[in-house]
Amino acid sequence: MQQSNAFNALKILHIALLIGMVMFAVTAVVAVQLVQQEPFAVTGESFQRNFQVVCVLLSALSLIAGFKIFKKKIFAARNSLQAGEKRMELYRTACILWWAMIEGPGILAGVGFILSGNYAFLALAIVHLLILLVFTPRKANIIMFLNLNSEEVVRLEGKRK
Fold it and tell me: Which chain regions cross the lipid bilayer (predicted)?
C-alpha cells in the first residue's frame, strides 16, 4: 500500500486555505458591490473606526504571537530525537496553528469590509492573504528546518526503501 506524500499533503492543505481566503474576499467584494448603498445599518462612522482599531490590533498581535509560537514549535521539532515522521507531524501542527493565526484576522477584516463597505478592511484582508502566500511550505525548507536525512525524506514522500 502506497503511503501519502507528507510534503504534498501539507502543500495541498495550504493551497486549500489560500483558495478559501480568496473565495471569501471575492464573495465579499461581490456582496458589497451588489448592495451599492450603505451595506448594512450597523455601520456608523464610530463602528468603522472602532472595528478598524480592533482589526489592526488583532492582526498585529496575532501575527507577532503566531510567529513566535511557530518558531518555538519549529525549533522543538528540529531538536526532537524522534523519527522524521513524528517531526513532520510536529511541523504540520506548527504550520496549521501559524496559518490559522494569519487567516483569522484576515477573515475578520473581510467581515468588516462586508459590514462597512470600507476598502481599508479589504486591504487588510489582502495583506493577510499575501502573508499566508509567503509562508507556502517548501520541501527544501522543511527538510532543512527538520534536519531530515535522506531515508526520512524517502519515507515522508511515501516511497518504500
Answer: 12-31, 51-70, 90-113, 119-136
> What are the pLDDT digits (tens) for 116-146?
888 999 999 999 999 999 999 998 888 888 8
Contact predicate 84/156, CB 8 Å: yes
**Dihedral (CA of 128, 123, 115, 45) sign:** positive
Cell numbers at residue 81, please? 530525537
Minimal CA–CA distance to 25: which of 119, 136, 122, 104? Answer: 122
Size of the chain, expressed as the number of residues it contains = 161
- Where along the chain do its domains lie? 6-156
Number of helices (H) and strands (E), helices first, in the chain? 6, 0
- Sequence-ordered list of residues with C-beta below 8 angstroms from that of 142, at least 6 positions apart, any chain: 7, 10, 88, 91, 148
The reported pTM is 0.85
Per-residue cell: 127: 495583506
Closest-CA residue to 70 (of 104, 95, 102, 100): 95
- Nearest 5°: the CA angle 16, 22, 25 is 140
